[in-house]
Amino acid sequence: MSLLRFDNVSKTWPGVAAGLSDVSFRVEDGEMLFVTGHSGAGKSTLLRLVHLSERPSRGTVLFEERNLAKVRGSKVPLHRRQVGVVFQDHRLLTDRTVFDNVALPLLIAGTPAAEVGKRVRHVLDQVGLGDRGKALPLQLSTGEQQRVGIARAIVAQPKLLVADEPTGNLDPQLAAEIMQLFASLPALGTTVMIASHDLALVKRMRRRVLVLDHGRLVDDIAPEDLAA
Ligand SMILES: Nc1ncnc2c1ncn2[C@@H]1O[C@H](COP(=O)(O)OP(=O)(O)OP(=O)(O)O)[C@@H](O)[C@H]1O
């Protein structure tokens, strides 16, 4: 059983040539893969279909063989507990501490308070921010804020993490560190899918790469086939 499956998925808007056009692929449990392509190629659209902030115009998206078209209304939050999301711009609550920001998905899920504390401390340690729980987001550097966003996305142990240009604002050293952090997640049970237009970075990671061009999936490159 594939964790995620796109079957002939298209997403169109009136007046837009193609958001996505007849895209099919599968992602297996425990993979880490990249989605790449030029600006406007459809990377964000593809990820948004996975966490249900968009719906396909045609075709089917399946998560653990469940057709996401059937996941509607009150079932959407349940689906989103299984799919963590990292955005380029963090979207942290600036008036809440780092700890509170990271705790949020667990509180929404109704996790008992004692468990929340334990999990948040663990995940902050994992992203190297064990001593910054009481800080406010704006007291942190950009890279640290990005790591808080990642901690928040993985704290509820999602089956899949989707990250949209997660290193776009970061210097190369920090970007590499964040990528290593993502690379450690499959071993902990989280499959990772990252949209990035940074080809050099993507190649260095030596993972599977889906290549989009004008909404079409034009290549699906295995790690061993990536040119050095
Ligand atoms: N809500 C929308 N309404 C209309 N058109 C949209 C919408 N969302 C995306 N598009 C269009 O779909 C195409 C793909 O956009 P998308 O944001 O997925 O590309 P991208 O590869 O993520 O680009 P970038 O690297 O610049 O973020 C673009 O032509 C875009 O203008």
Short description:
With 228 residues, this protein is of the alpha/beta class.
Could you give the topology of this structure?
Elements: E1 4-11, E2 20-27, E3 32-36, H1 43-50, E4 58-63, E5 66-67, H2 75-82, E6 83-86, H3 98-108, H4 113-126, H5 142-154, E7 160-164, H6 172-183, E8 191-195, H7 199-205, E9 208-213, E10 216-221
Parallel strand pairs: 3-8, 3-9, 6-7, 7-8
Antiparallel strand pairs: 1-2, 1-4, 4-5, 9-10
Helix pairs in contact: 3-4, 3-5, 4-5
Adenosine-5'-triphosphate binds at residues 13, 16, 19, 37, 39-45, 197.
* Low-confidence regions: none
Strand content: 15-25%
Enumerate how many helices there are, as a single number. Answer: 7
How is the CATH topology of the domain at 4-92 and 160-225 named?
Rossmann fold
The biggest sheet, with number of strands, parallel, antiparallel or mixed sense and barrel status, is: 6 strands, mixed
Could you give the count of β-strands? Answer: 10
